[in-house]
Write a structure and sequence with these properties.
The complex is a heterodimer of chains A (207) and B (107). With 207 residues, chain A is mainly alpha-helical. In chain A, 75% of the residues lie in helices and 0% in strands.
C-alpha cells in the first residue's frame, strides 16, 4: 500500500489524514476504539469510586496525595497535548521537519510525566508502605493510575517507532493518518487524566 | 476544489485557515490552564464548602474535556458525525458503568 499513495509532498491535500480510503478507515476505526476506551476507563473509575473508602486500616487518599506533584504532572500532560496540536498544525502545512520537532517535544514532556508518576508510586510504596495489595483502595488506585500510565508509556513508544520508521520517508498520504491517529490517542490520554486529577486527587483531598 | 491542481505548496487559503484554527486552539489551551489552576486553588485553599466543591470540580473537568474533544481533536469540524456518535455512545456507557459501580456499594 505504501508508495502508490505517496503524492508529491508539494501538492498535499489540506486534510492529508483523510485523503485516502485507508486514512478514512483509520480515522473512523480509531474513534470507535476511543469510544471503547471510554468505557474501559469508566469501569476503572467506577471501581475506584466504589472502593476508595475501603482502606483496611491503611493510609487514605487525603493522607497520601500531594497536590504539588499532581499539579506539575497535569501541566506536563496538558502542555504535551498542545505541542501535539502544533505538530498536527505543521503536518497540515506539510512541514515535516517542524512536525517531527514538535512531536519530539511532546515525547519529552510525556517522559517527564511518566517520571513523576514513577516517583509518586515509589514514594507511596517506600514512605507509606502503600501498595497494590495494601487494601481495596490500593488495588483500585493502582489499577486506574497504572492503566493510565501504561497508556502514556505505550503512546510514547508508539510515537518513537513512528518517528524512527518515517524519518527518511518524509510526509506522505500513507503516513499522515498514522501521525494524526497518534495525536488523537494522545489527546484522549489527556482527557482521561483530567478526570483522574479531578476525581482521584482533588476530590480525594476534599474528602 | 483546487487543492491538487496548484503548482506547488499548500494554497494560501488553507494556510490562513490553519492559522486561524491554531489561534483558537491556543485560546482553548489558555482557558484549560486557567480552569486547571482554578480547580487546584479551590481545593488547596479549602475556600469552598465540601458539598459545593465537588460539583464545581466536575463542571471544570467537563468543560476542559469538551475543549479537548472539540478543539484539540477537531470534533467541531464537519465529517465528525461518526466520531461524535462513538464518543457519546462511549460516554453513555461510561455514565452507566460509573453509576452502577458506585451505587452498588450503598445497598
Amino acid at each position: 500500500m505504501s508508495h502508490d499513495h505517496s503524492l508529491n509532498p508539494e501538492t498535499m491535500p489540506h486534510e492529508p489524514e483523510k485523503a485516502t480510503l485507508e486514512g478514512k478507515n483509520k480515522f473512523i476505526g480509531f474513534w470507535f476504539f476511543l469510544g471503547g476506551e471510554t468505557v474501559l476507563f469508566a469501569s476503572l473509575f467506577g471501581t475506584y469510586l466504589a472502593l476508595h473508602n475501603s482502606t483496611a486500616g491503611g493510609p487514605a487518599g487525603n493522607e497520601l496525595f500531594g497536590l504539588e506533584l499532581v499539579f506539575v504532572m497535569t501541566i506536563l500532560l496538558l502542555t504535551s497535548s498542545l505541542t501535539s496540536v502544533y505538530a498536527i498544525y505543521h503536518m497540515k502545512n506539510n512541514d515535516f521537519g517542524k512536525m517531527t520537532l514538535w512531536f519530539i517535544i511532546t515525547i519529552i514532556l510525556g517522559f517527564g510525566f511518566v517520571g513523576c508518576e514513577l516517583y509518586e508510586f515509589h514514594h507511596y510504596i517506600t514512605e507509606y508502605g502503600f501498595t497494590f495489595r495494601s487494601s481495596a483502595f490500593g488495588s483500585a488506585f493502582y489499577a486506574l493510575l497504572g492503566f493510565h500510565g501504561g497508556h502514556v508509556t505505550f503512546g510514547l513508544f508508539w510515537m518513537i517507532a513512528l518517528l524512527i520508521r518515517n524519518a527518511r520517508r518524509g510526509l506522505n498520504l500513507y503516513n499522515a493518518p498514522k501521525f494524526y491517529i497518534w495525536s488523537l490517542y494522545w489527546h484522549f490520554i489527556d482527557v482521561v487524566w483530567v478526570f483522574i486529577f479531578t476525581v482521584v486527587y482533588l476530590m480525594g483531598k476534599v474528602g | 476544489m483546487t487543492e491538487n491542481t496548484g503548482s506547488n505548496k499548500i494554497d494560501s487559503f488553507h494556510k490562513k485557515k490553519n492559522k486561524e484554527e491554531m489561534q483558537k486552539q491556543l485560546i482553548s489551551f489558555a482557558l484549560m490552564i486557567v480552569f486547571t489552576i482554578l480547580a487546584f486553588v479551590v481545593v488547596a485553599t479549602g475556600m469552598m464548602d465540601k458539598m459545593l466543591v465537588i460539583p464545581v470540580l466536575l463542571v471544570l473537568a467537563i468543560v476542559q474535556v469538551a475543549f479537548q474533544f472539540y478543539y484539540f481533536m477537531h470534533m467541531k469540524h464537519e465529517g465528525h458525525e461518526m466520531a461524535s456518535a462513538m464518543i457519546y455512545g462511549g460516554i453513555w456507557a461510561a455514565i452507566l458503568a460509573v453509576a452502577g459501580l458506585s451505587t452498588i456499594v450503598w445497598w
